[in-house]
Amino acid sequence: MADVNRGDRPLSPHLTVYDQSYTGTLSILHRITGVALTLGSLLVVWWLLAASADDEYFALVDGILTSWFGLAILFVSTLAMAYHTLNGIRHLWWDMGYGYELQQVRRSGQAVLGGSVALTVLFWLFAV
Predict the structure, then answer these.
(1) Could you tell me if 36 and 77 are in contact, meaning their C-beta atoms sit under 8 angstroms apart?
(2) CA distance 100 to 45
(3) Domains of the chain
(4) Please, how many CA atoms are within 13 Å of residue 82, restricted to the half-sphere of its CB?
(5) Which tens digits make up the pLDDT trace of 43-95?
(6) What's the rounded Cα separation, in Å, for the pair 11 and 26?
(7) Which helix or strand (DSSP H or E) is residue 105 part of?
(8) Using CA atoms, how far apart are residues 13 and 32, in angstroms rounded to an integer?
(9) CA 126: distance to chain centroid?
(10) pTM of this structure
(11) What would the DSSP string read from start to end of 49-104?
């Protein structure tokens, strides 16, 4: 049933008309990484539960997580954690009233992206 109060007014153009901004893209990525971290943490919980079960089940789960596919998921989860953490710090900085100039916003976004990659690589080089 059509909304009789709307008349001939157009619907909101949403993403089909507006160009996606740099900060908007980083904001969406922040939300996506939050969901990805939830899913990645479920894998860690699965691994820990398997460790508390019998040896055969743990070997199965450990084999899955140490396969190329499991390691790829863990690598992406590490990247998501680094990005989500650094971008969260960026948002805290904004909450304190700093970094609102357009050039500062772009630089801090680039720093978050570059820092995320650097932290992920360093983690996998030294911790794994």
Answers:
(1) yes
(2) 39
(3) 21-126 (1.20.1300.10)
(4) 20
(5) 999 999 999 999 999 999 999 999 999 999 999 999 999 999 999 999 999 99
(6) 26
(7) helix 102-126
(8) 22
(9) 22
(10) 0.81
(11) HHHHS-HHHHHHHHHHHTSHHHHHHHHHHHHHHHHHHHHHHHHHHHHTT---SHHH
